[in-house]
Design brief:
Blueprint: H1 3-9, H2 15-23, E1 27-29, E2 32-33, H3 47-50, E3 51-53, E4 56-57, E5 65-70, E6 101-102, E7 110-117, H4 120-127, E8 135-141, H5 149-154, E9 171-176, E10 179-184, H6 191-198, E11 203-211, E12 214-215, E13 225-227, H7 230-236
Parallel strand pairs: 7-11
Antiparallel strand pairs: 1-2, 1-3, 3-4, 5-7, 5-13, 6-7, 8-10, 8-11, 9-10, 11-12
Helix pairs in contact: 1-2
The structure holds uracil.
């Protein structure tokens, strides 16, 4: 790919800004200055080791998957008011094309495992209802469980308010009288909160622990992120 196209897609500036940068010696490939913005660059996973911009490894090329421990109080959106998940990533990454999107959404007041990617096919494979990727949430409830919830959630007959199609079966695993793990395979709007509301309870805190076979990594504190490994991406579908 042409250097100017590559770098403008990664958010480093317009093509003419990249031309100036290259002419000024700000781009190095394999240790040698690269002044020609039209030069063809081999784009592979080793790109950040080979290409340096102002002395620093270039950002990862398209096809990235980010694991984020979403903190409370940030919104999964590109452009709403207030704190956004994208604010947790480097500012330049907002200008990338293809854009980085969240894989599904977590509510502002939900914490836990969130993936972000610029790979549209992967995103759709994970959120497609046909794939049945399990999402495991830990919910803290305002009132003790009654013991009826597990059967209601597993029935495949629970209808959420305002909807016309019942929920597919979900699995409840009580953790304490007022805490439970809930495994769902759909991603309806405010689904977990509305499920507990449908059985007369109220979710006070909600945290996503797992997506498919991928658990939220222990090394990520709230607000922290890192690139997912190939094995971690595969684990989502395991
Ligand atoms: N269900 C909810 O109610 N909220 C979330 O953020 C995720 C699932």
């Amino acid at each position: 790919m042409r250097l100017d196209k590559l770098l403008s897609g990664l958010g480093y500036g317009t093509r003419s800004e990249i031309q100036k940068l290259a002419r000024a010696g700000g781009v190095e490939l394999d240790g040698a200055p690269l002044s020609d913005a039209a030069a063809r660059i081999p784009v592979g996973p080793d790109l950040p080791e080979r290409l340096r911009i102002d002395g620093r490894p270039v950002d990862p090329p398209p096809g990235l998957v980010i694991l984020l421990h979403k903190p409370l109080g940030v919104t999964c959106s590109h452009k709403e008011d207030g704190a956004l998940v994208h604010d947790l990533l480097p500012a330049r990454w907002r200008r990338r094309d293809p854009a980085i999107s969240t894989v599904g959404r977590l509510d502002k007041q939900t914490s836990g495992l969130l993936l972000l990617t610029d790979d549209g096919d992967l995103l759709h494979r994970i959120i497609s209802p046909r794939r049945h990727v399990a999402k495991v949430y830990r919910a803290t409830l305002a009132r003790p469980l009654t013991g009826q919830e597990g059967a209601i959630f597993a029935s495949g007959e629970l209808m959420l308010e305002g909807e016309v199609k019942p929920l597919t079966p979900a699995q409840l695993d009580p953790v304490s009288p007022t805490e439970a793990r809930l495994t769902v395979t759909e991603g309806r709007y405010h689904q977990v909160r509305r499920m507990f509301a449908a059985v007369g309870n109220h979710v006070e805190a909600l945290h996503r622990e797992r997506l498919g076979g991928l658990a939220l990594a222990d090394d990520l504190a709230p607000g922290e992120w890192r690139m997912a490994t190939v094995d971690e991406i595969e684990a989502v579908f395991a």
